[in-house]
Amino acid sequence: MKLVFALFTGLIFGVGIAASGMMDPAKVLNFFDIAGTWDPSLAFVMSGALLVTFFGYRLAWRQTTPLFGGRFQIPSATAVDKRLVGGSALFGIGWGIAGFCPGAAIPALGTGRWEVALFLVAVLAGFVLRRLLFARPVQSAA
Fold first, then answer.
1. How far apart are CA 99 and CA 113, in angstroms?
2. Cα–Cα distances in angstroms (integers) from residue 122 to residues 16, 116, 135, in the given order
3. Which of 26, 33, 55, 62 is the least crowded, having the fewest Cβ atoms under 10 Å away?
4. Where residue 139 falls among pLDDT bands split at 50, 70, 90?
5. Confidence band (pLDDT; 50, 70, 90) for 141?
6. Burial code of 55-66, b = ≥16 C-beta within 10 A, e = fewer?
7. In whole angstroms, what is the distance from residue 43 CA to residue 51 CA?
8. pTM to 2 decimals?
9. What was the pLDDT predicted at 83?
10. CB-neighbour burial class of residue 104 (10 A; exposed 0-12, middle 13-18, buried 19+)
11. By CB neighbour count within 10 A (0-12 exposed, 13-18 middle, 19+ buried), where does 99 fall?
12. Given a cut of 60, is residue 140 above it in pLDDT?
C-alpha cells in the first residue's frame, strides 16, 4: 500500500508540473530574465507549493507517526556551512543554466527530449561525484 501512495503522490506531482508548464525550460529561464521576457508564473507555482506544504505539515504534525512509515524523517543538521552554501549555489547555477530542477526533469522525461535525459545523467553523475569526493571512511568496530 505504501508504494501505491508513493506512485499516486508522484503522479500528482508530475501532473502539477506539466499543468503549470514547468517542464518547459524556457518558462523557467524566462523567470530569471527580469530585464527581458520575464515570466512570473514560476513564482505563482512556488507560492502554491509553499501554501500546500504549510497546511500539509500542519496536518502531518498532528500525527504521532506517518501513515506509511515507522517515524518521521526530520533532518537533524541545522548548521549553515560551506558544503550547504556550495551545494545550494551549484543547484541554483545548474537550474539557471539548464532551466530544469531535478524534480521537474523527472516528469519531463515523458516529453522524449534528449536534453532532459542529458540533464538527469548530469545530475546522477553529480551524485556519484559527491559520494566519491565526500565519502566518510568507515571506521572498524575493533
1. 13
2. 24, 10, 19
3. 62
4. low
5. low
6. eeeeeeeeeeee
7. 12
8. 0.73
9. 85
10. buried
11. buried
12. no
The burial class, CB within 10 Å (0-12 / 13-18 / 19+), for 88 is exposed
- Cell numbers 545550494 correspond to 88
Q: Which three cell numbers stand for residue 99?
A: 532551466
- Of 51, 26, 63, whose CA–CA distance to 41 is shortest? 26
Q: What is the mean pLDDT of the chain?
A: 87
Residue identified by cell 506517518 is 66
| DSSP secondary structure letters along the chain | -HHHHHHHHHHHHHHHHHHHTTT-HHHHHHHH-TTSS--THHHHHHHHHHHHHHHHHHHHTTSSS-TTSSS----------HHHHHHHHHHHHHHHHHS--HHHHHHHGGGT-HHHHHHHHHHHHHHHHHHHHHPPPPPP--
Residue 35 has pLDDT above 60, yes or no: yes
